[in-house]
Amino acid sequence: MRTRILESINDIQSGEWNALLPDSNPFVRHEFLAALEDSGCVSVGTGWQPMHITCEASDGQLIGAMPLYLKSNSYGEFVFDFSWANAYQQAGLRYYPKLVSAVPFTPATGPRLLAGPGDNIRGTVEETLLVTARELASSYGASSLHILFPDTLQAQRLKELSLLLRKDCQFHWHNQQYADFDDFLAQFTAEKRKKTRRERRRVQEAGITFRTLTGADLASADWDEIMPLYSATFTRRGRPPYLNKNCLVQLSNSMPNNLVLFLGYSLSELVAVALCFRSDTTLYGRYWGATRFIDSLHFETCYYQGIEFCIRQGLQTFEPGTQGEHKIARGFVPTETWSAHWLSHPEFARAIDAYLDREREHIENYIDAATEHVPYRKGPD
Q1: Is the pLDDT score of 333 beyond 90?
Q2: What is the dihedral sign for C-alpha 101, 104, 107, 109?
Q3: What is the CA 126 to chain-centroid distance, rounded?
Q4: Residue 153 CB partners (closer than 8 Å, separation 6+)
Q5: Tell me: the pLDDT tens digits for 164-181?
Q6: Residue 318 in contact with residue 310, Cβ under 8 Å?
Q7: What integer pLDDT is reported at residue 110 of this predicted model?
């Protein structure tokens, strides 16, 4: 096997890269990663320097790949290690640069070690990718390697390969073959069902109507109307948006059927938007924005419109993003997520391993406590 380091995803053909993907996850597709790079959203300047690893067989066939970035900060990752960086600094050591295998600005689960068909070589390819990543970390003086939001099976494989596993929690919605939204609500307790209907009614009484569009429905001019709403959410938090207009326009052209938008209108005025992506099985909520506060508009735009879409399209899962205990009352349930970590400094590695054991117990207790508050009926109404 031969490995290469790609300074841009465009150094490889999209067909070769996408042939390695085990499912229809949109975020590890060549088109998605290319849009981030082509638009400048991912670059040395934003703290995400591409260093993707590929693995080739002796005949030159691509048999493995790993999206990888040299990071000079921890922004846009959603697996928070700022305290680790502070501990390094207090010890007189450098935490940055570090290597991160992730989809920038995207806390969605999916494959990270990509291996072509053939279970007989999959393990060897995965191990080769990790060995190469650690060698790359050493050559750049990186403190560590982090693999963020791998799916559960790959997380366990990374543990077998001696990486430290970190557990966290998101809130996901699961389709139980619901016929429609009312069928879904029928599974709630009476009190929670009434509350949800009241939230949806408030939005309707405010005169808000919704359209669902895909990337194929959007022209560049449409993004001029959408971008201020999307950007405002970041501006209120004192930082620029992760994605720019060029990136979103490119995505709507290169991945038109994967991009889904829920747009709320007051008469002809656009007042709210939720920007999502989809695979064959899953809807991923990413960003939202609104021109003004309207009671329950956030819940309708970001959650209820997405749930209705999943039911119509037969999608099995809705991952709306990180954090947000308010999602529980809307039918989203606590779900384990994972990251895997390798640290070059042996003493810090031992300390963080012990920390992760304590943190994991806390997360497990949190999941148990959160599960007690899901709105679903546990028996007859």
Answers
A1: yes
A2: negative
A3: 22
A4: none
A5: 999 999 999 999 999 999
A6: yes
A7: 96
Write down the residue that tokens 């879904």 correspond to.
184
**CATH architecture of the domain formed by 2-168+335-371:** 3-Layer(aba) Sandwich (3.40)
Distances from the Cα of 185 to the Cα of 178, 189, 205, angstroms:
9, 9, 20
Structure tokens at 101: 């295998």
Instruction: Indicate if the pLDDT at residue 289 is higher than 80.
Output: yes
Across all residues in the chain, what is the average pLDDT?
A: 95
Fill in the DSSP letter of residue 30.
Answer: H
Every domain of the chain and the residues it spans: 2-168+335-371, 176-315
pLDDT of residue 381: 41
* Eight-state DSSP code of residue 324: -
255, pLDDT greater than 60: yes
Strands (E) across the chain are located at 2-6, 48-50, 52-56, 62-66, 69-71, 98-101, 114-115, 144-148, 164-174, 208-214, 259-266, 269-278, 282-290, 317-319, 333-343
Domains 2-168+335-371 and 176-315 share a fold: yes
pTM of the model: 0.95
